[in-house]
Design goal:
The structure is a single chain. By secondary structure, the chain is of the alpha/beta class. The protein folds into 2 domains: 151 residues, 3-Layer(aba) Sandwich (D-Maltodextrin-Binding Protein, domain 2), CATH 3.40.190.10; 99 residues, 3-Layer(aba) Sandwich (D-Maltodextrin-Binding Protein, domain 2), CATH 3.40.190.10. The protein contains 8 helices and 10 strands. The strands form 2 sheets. The chain has an 8-stranded mixed beta sheet, with helices on both faces. The radius of gyration is 20 Å and the shape is globular.
């Protein structure tokens, strides 16, 4: 007796759901404030962790955040070692995944020293530019425009380098810069007048931020369930509330 294709698809979906829901999905969280960081007890917290809690509540599947530096987070999900990631919707930066739901919008910013004038990418020629190793700018722009590349492991390192005039420009996420400007990360001590030492930021690009699922993850079979949950939470303003909580600015690309 031949099985009807629609029935086979349904049974496959049920099997995928049973396998996926048997254990917590492991979600790579980029380890820098305000996206992800360890609290005083060592547990992951931050913007993206809060978003996972919203998604988890709606899909009914436990989501386990795993804090990792940017390059390791991307490699882990692209290779299938971990199931999911929250990042820019950028297949160049994050290959071998499916982007399943928009949790907001973030901008990549060019932030110069107070005495450096820039208005566009071409203005970076001949300048020392700080950026996160393995991140968005590194993969998409660092080999062009005649820059002098200065790879760094953290946003804190970049900020200190900019303030001390060790670099001319840094590339930093809008949520990260806003967190500094709004004094959200109080444990990081910068010189008192540091805000006077940086110039006006220039938006390099504004991009949707998505939850993605590794193409090798068993959760691929229920990707539509995640999409529906994320869309519902987005319409309800759940993610916008999280942006506001962390002083990260607008969650809409239209407002960046």
């Amino acid at each position: 007796m031949k099985c009807n294709k629609s029935i086979l698809c349904f049974l496959t979906l049920i099997a995928s759901f049973q396998v996926a829901s048997a254990q917590a999905a492991k979600v790579a969280i980029i380890d820098f404030f305000p996206f992800g960081y360890a609290d005083s007890t060592g547990n992951p917290t931050g913007m993206f962790v809060d978003m996972l809690k919203v998604i988890q509540q709606k899909v009914g599947i436990p989501l386990q955040p795993v804090l990792l530096p940017v390059p390791r987070a991307i490699r882990a999900v692209s290779s299938g070692q971990l199931d999911m990631l929250i990042s820019y919707k950028d297949p160049i930066m994050v290959p071998n995944v499916d982007f399943v739901g928009n949790v907001g919008c973030l901008s990549s910013l060019l932030v110069p020293s107070h005495d450096v004038n820039i208005n566009r990418l071409e203005d970076l020629s001949g300048k020392k530019v700080g950026f996160i190793t393995g991140g968005y700018f590194h993969k998409r722009f660092s080999e062009g425009y005649g820059i002098i590349p200065m790879q760094v492991p953290s946003n804190e390192s970049m900020m200190r380098m900019l303030i001390r005039n060790r670099v001319d420009v840094i590339v930093i996420n809008s949520a990260v810069l806003n967190a500094y400007l709004n004094d959200q990360n109080t444990w990081i001590k910068l010189v008192t007048d540091w805000k006077n030492k940086i110039g006006n930021s220039v938006i390099l690009e504004s991009m949707e931020t998505h939850l993605s699922i590794s193409k090798k993850s068993p959760y691929q079979g229920i990707a539509k369930k995640f999409t529906a949950a994320i869309n519902e939470a987005y319409v309800q303003g759940k993610f916008s509330d999280i942006y506001t909580k962390y002083g990260a600015g607008s969650s809409s690309c239209n407002k960046n």
